[in-house]
Design brief:
With 313 residues, the protein is an alpha+beta fold. The chain has twelve helices and ten strands. The relative contact order is 0.15.
Length: 313
Amino acid sequence: MTVTQSMPRQQMIDIIARIAGEDGDYQTIVPGLSIHRHSSTAKLNCAAYKPSLAIIVQGAKRVVLGEETLVYDASDYLLTSIDLPVLSQVSVASPEEPYLSMAFQIDTTRIPALLDAIGHGAAKSSGSPRGMAVSKLTPDLEDAALRLLRLLDRPDDIAVLLPLVEQELLYRLVIGPHGARLRQMTTVESQPHQIGRAVAWLKEHYSRPLRIDDLASRVSMSVSSFHHHFKAITAMSPLQYQKQLRLQEARRLMLEERLDAGDAGHKVGYESQSQFSREYARHFGEPPGRDIGRVRRSLVGHLSGEAEMLSEG
């Protein structure tokens, strides 16, 4: 342990390194908790982040959201308050000190009751409504995260203690610098809540032609207000958001179901194969055939971190 390494942090490193003995992304026996290990850096990979808390205990990562890049390491946490398609990259990792992280999905349905208990004014106001933010990890939040990890070694305690640890994690996030983001996402008829409804519709119907006026009407917003708030929260226009959903799903279809580029593009809503190939190359850096070939060669018999991840910290 280094001089600057805290005792809780070293314990978190030890737990994750022991359970994730090899590189990969692991869903654990604790519902909603995943752990991640990578011994080298890699290219930007597509990922679909759900509302979650992500903590890196060793290494660093960068996440590209729209035209913004967020960088965080073992001194930070990443809070995601709405479903977001992103590009992510492990930026600091080595065999000697692998990238180690944990991610815990946030059950947003628990937030209203928590706010009733502590008072709605307790959630601090953040300057931005963005659905993803990096903040400094506090000792209290780190301690609660460590107790969550310890449940991996105490499966008999999970049913009783998990709800208590989850409640404390939510409490620490809600009273933290970005707590207002979580509060607004669960406040019915607030703009973030309305955008959340639009995002849910887009995720279910991403292959359909998108009519902005119809979607704005669906969530009871004017077109101009819908555009403004959608981009403020997701860092993308609705069309850009839909495009990322389509491209990520097409990549998954080619990797996991072995569809060719033409069939995958058509299935996700592209009528023009050339347009699909252009947008795919612009997003992933390579045409579909070259990108998928490279990823398959790197899999070495099993799907690795190059494939889509649901919520990786």
